[in-house]
Amino acid sequence: MATISSAKPDELAAAAFALFSTRGIAGVNMDEIAAGAGVTKGSLYWHYASKKEVILAACNLYYSAWRIQIAGATEVHERLADQLEAAVAFSVRSCLLDDANRVFTTEIVAMSLYDADVRASWTGFLDETERFFLGLTHRAVGAGEFRCDDVDRAVDLLMASMEGIKQIALFRPQSCLPENEQRTCRRLMSLMGERVPVHVPV
Amino acid sequence: MATISSAKPDELAAAAFALFSTRGIAGVNMDEIAAGAGVTKGSLYWHYASKKEVILAACNLYYSAWRIQIAGATEVHERLADQLEAAVAFSVRSCLLDDANRVFTTEIVAMSLYDADVRASWTGFLDETERFFLGLTHRAVGAGEFRCDDVDRAVDLLMASMEGIKQIALFRPQSCLPENEQRTCRRLMSLMGERVPVHVPV
DNA sequence: ACCGCGCCATACCGACCGGTATTGAGCGCC
DNA sequence: GGCGCTCAATACCGGTCGGTATGGCGCGGT
């Protein structure tokens, strides 16, 4: 058979992420993760030394997916203001509609309360997200496409609001309805600043 | 001895809350909860049928403490705008500085992912909190002390931001510094609307 | 004096789970 | 063919924890 083997750890991490994001981290044991990838626990422990390593690998998988998705959602737009709006819309959608996202991130946050490694991992992701929005907003403002008096304040509030929205959506299912999703996007954008209307030459 | 006994369940719940809020719900077992109240597990199970009942009792204790604290923080002010500002300041402070608050609520939110009873309990608390801020803001606006075009939007964003701030503070210790705490309060208030200056007769 | 009952302690069960020890199958290499 | 490496499967250990069974102790009622 001679499996190339280099992809196996990723396969295992993917199986772990799939289970974690539906049944939670504590709700899944190592036997089930192994079974999800078609192997047994003995093999799983050959690739990862502990459950925590599996969790951190699943985190990295999540971060990679996020990078790809938000890049795909924004890069289709030419104008920077549109990119910013698309990035916010993508984030809101994933907060409100993506149950896997909510389950996984909530568990990771809870785990960060006690585990410094997991906390460091998530801190890195938060930093990356913040840099993304800061950079995009600054560029949109610099290009004269968006008006925002205090970009740092705006992005800070945006980040907090999005985390809060994701959390509260668990308790307010009606906030996940399409019309409320759009309203949430508008509210978040109005919190950021306002678009500069395109100058249409006559 | 003949202990009055009526206070015992609350004592047990208080011991449970103290442990939950420092070491998490999953990190505390029934023996430790009982020991924290000076009894053994047998007694604990005489008062509560399951660990979940203990958890829900600890939740109710938390809600009661919140009611008392936020009432105490606001009622010292005469003007409604001041009350609103004090309520926001209290919430921010408890989000940023109160580790027990963060640990307990994060665990409850994570538990709500899978347990409908816990979720219902926390939903009730969120509703209560929202009603509190909606009512206070509406009254402040009605009394002409505060200007806010869309109270529903403002309170929605406020609730989301506060939950997000509490969560993100775990990963950004510097946001808990006093100067950043005040800045956060100002940002949240600016998100709500603006105070109407007191009319000082000359 | 006796009983019932509220309250508590002791001892224990059974299930679960992370992690390990051990063995073996396939494969490249000499 | 024999050796050694990689990777996988089986069985098992040690410990934890929620929950239960059972018995005891003191008090109030009669």
UniProtKB/TrEMBL annotation, chains A, B:
Domain HTH tetR-type: 6-66
Native source organism of the sequence: Agromyces cerinus subsp. cerinus
Keywords: DNA-binding, Transcription, Transcription regulation
GO terms of molecular function: DNA-binding transcription factor activity; transcription cis-regulatory region binding
InterPro entries: Homeodomain-like_sf (IPR009057), HTH-type_TetR-like_transc_reg (IPR050109), HTH_TetR (IPR001647), Tet_transcr_reg_TetR-rel_C_sf (IPR036271)
PANTHER family: HTH-TYPE TRANSCRIPTIONAL REGULATOR ACRR, HTH-TYPE TRANSCRIPTIONAL REGULATOR RUTR
Coiled coil (residue ranges): none
Chain residues forming the annotated DNA-binding region: 29-48
Superkingdom of origin organism: Bacteria
Descriptive protein name: Transcriptional regulator, TetR family
